[in-house]
Amino acid sequence: MNKYRKRITAAAVAMALTAVTSGCSASDIGNNILEKLEDLVAMTGLFGREENAAGAATTGTNAETAQEEEPGQSALSKEAERRRSEGKNLNIYCWDESLEALFLLYYPGYEDVGDRTGKIGDVTVNWIIPDDESKYMELLAERLLTAEYLDKDDKVDLYLAPEEDLAIYVNSDYSLDVREKLGLTDEELEDQFAFTQQMASTDDGILKAVTWQASPGVFVYRRSIAKKVLGSDDPDAVQKNLADWAKFDAAAAKMKKDEFFMVSGYYDTYPAYRFGADRHWEEKGKLVIPDNFKNWKNQMALYAKKGYSNKTTMGSDAWVADQGPGSKVFGFFRAIPDIDSKMAAYSLADPDAAPAEGNGIYGDFGVCCGPQSFCRGGVWILAAPSTDNLILDKEIMENFTCNSNLLYKISQNENIFTNTVSGMRKMAKSGLQDAFLGGQNPYEVYYEAASRLSVQTAGNYDRWMADQYRNSLLDYFKGETSEYEAMQDFYAEVKERYPELDVEAEMEKTEAEEEERLRKEEEARKAREAKKKAEEKKKAEEAKKKAEEAKKAEEKKSGEAGSTGNTGEAAGTEEAGN
Description:
Elements: H1 3-21, H2 26-44, H3 75-85, E1 89-93, H4 98-106, E2 110-112, E3 117-120, E4 123-128, H5 136-145, E5 158-162, H6 166-170, H7 186-189, H8 194-198, E6 216-222, H9 223-230, H10 235-241, H11 245-257, E7 263-265, H12 270-273, E8 282-283, E9 286-287, H13 291-306, E10 309-312, H14 317-321, E11 331-335, H15 336-346, E12 365-368, E13 374-375, E14 379-383, H16 390-401, H17 404-414, H18 421-429, H19 443-452, H20 462-472, H21 474-477, H22 483-497, H23 504-577
Parallel strand pairs: 1-4, 1-5, 7-10
Antiparallel strand pairs: 2-3, 3-4, 5-14, 6-11, 6-12, 6-13, 8-9
Helix pairs in contact: 1-2, 2-5, 17-18, 18-19, 20-22, 22-23
C-alpha cells in the first residue's frame, strides 16, 4: 500500500470514527466502535479487502503467520531464530501512565530512555498514551481495526482494557488466546485468582487477557454505628449480621430504628448484585433480565420506601458527604483502591491536617466481605493480532501477572492487592495494620473476598444492559414515575440500541406483572372501601345506640322528676286538709 493510499485510509478511519462516536458517552464508545466501525470501514471501499488472495477480509495479523521451520534445527536455534524475527519496537497502548510507572519501578531489565519510551533488551518499548484519556478507546479501535494498513511502528502489540469494557475485547477477534498464541501455561497461570481469568475468558473457556491486579470489592462500614446497632464493631461479628441479603435487609431495619441509614444511595448495592449468580442478558437472541438484577430493583425500591437509604446518587456531593463527618450512613460497597485514597480523604474534618484518628471520622471504619462477593475495577493486558513481538508479549504477561515474588513486592510497597494467591495469603497473615480501618489488616478480608468470588463470563450485551437497567429505574426509586413506566423506558432503549434482540417475552412479563399489580391494587382499594364503609356503619350504629341510650336516660330522668313532683303535691294537699 503506498503512502497516498495510507493517507486516504487514515482520513476514512477518522471520518468513520466521527460518525460512530458523535454524541456518544465514553462508556458507549467501545461498544459502538467495535460493533459498528468495522462495517463503516468496509463500506469505504478504500481498504483493498479484495487484495487478499483468498478474497476474505483479514486483520493484518503477524501473529497468525507461522514461521517455517528448517529440518534439523535444534530447539535453541529455533528460539534464536524466532527472537531474530521479532519486531524491534513494542507498542503498548494505555489510557494513563500507571502501568509505565510500575514498569519503571519493578519490571526486570526495563530501562527508561525518556519521552514515554523504554528498552527491554534490544527492543524499544513505546508507551502510546493519548493526551486526553477519554480518547483512548477511539485511538485503540482505530489501530486495531486498520492494523494491516498501518506502518509497522504504529501497530498495536499490547493494550489495556478496564473491567467495565473487558468483555468487548475478549469476545472480539482483536485479542489473542494467551495460551495457544502466546504460550502461557496452566502452571504459570495457576497462582492467579480464578475470577480474574473467568472475567477474561470467552464462553468456551479461551483466556484472552491477564492482569497484575485482583480487585474484589468489599463492604466498608462505620465502627461506631456497628457498636451501637449491632453490638460489636469486630469484622467477623459484623459479617455474621450481613452474611446474606436477608440478613443485610434485617440489619437495615435495625439501622432505621436507631435513626441511621444502611446505605447512602439508590445505586449503592448495585455493584454487588451485578456479580450475582447470573449476569447474562441475552439468550438465543432474546432479552433476559437476570433474577439478581430484579432482586436489586425490589431491594432499592423497599429501601427508598422504608427510609433505609439516604436517597443519594452515587458520585454526587451528597453521596461523598455521607462518607464524611456528620454522616449517619452505616456503610458502602467499595473497590479496594478507593478505600485508602478516596474514602480516607472524604472522612477528614480538616483536609489540610494529618490523616489520623480524631480528624473527622478517620479510623472509624472497618471492612468485611458483605452478602455478595464482587469485582470493581481492575485493568487487564491483551495482545493484539497485529503484534510482531509474541515472545516479548508472553514474557511481559508472565513477569507482570504470573511472577508471584514480583507481585508480592508490589503489594508490600504500593498497597495494591495483586493477582497472586500465595502472595496475598502472606499479606493476609502479616502484621499489617491500616490506620484508616481502625488498625485492621484488610488483606484478610480482601483475600477471603477474592478467593470466594466466582464470575460468569460476560457477554457483549451484559455491561450496557445492566447499566441501562440501573439508570432507567432511578426515577422510579425517586417516586417520580411508576415501575411499569420505568421498564417501558428501558425496553425502548434496548430496542433502539439492539434492534436484533427480541424483547417481547420480557415485555409480556412486565405487562403481566403490571396487570397483577393493578389487580391487587384494585382489590386493596375495594378492601379499604369496604373496611371504611364497615367502620362508618359501625360508628353510625354506635352513635345511634348512644343517642337512643341518651334519650332513654333523659326520659327516665324526666319521669323520675315528674314522680317526685306529684308526691310533693299530694303531701301538701294532705297538710292543708289537716
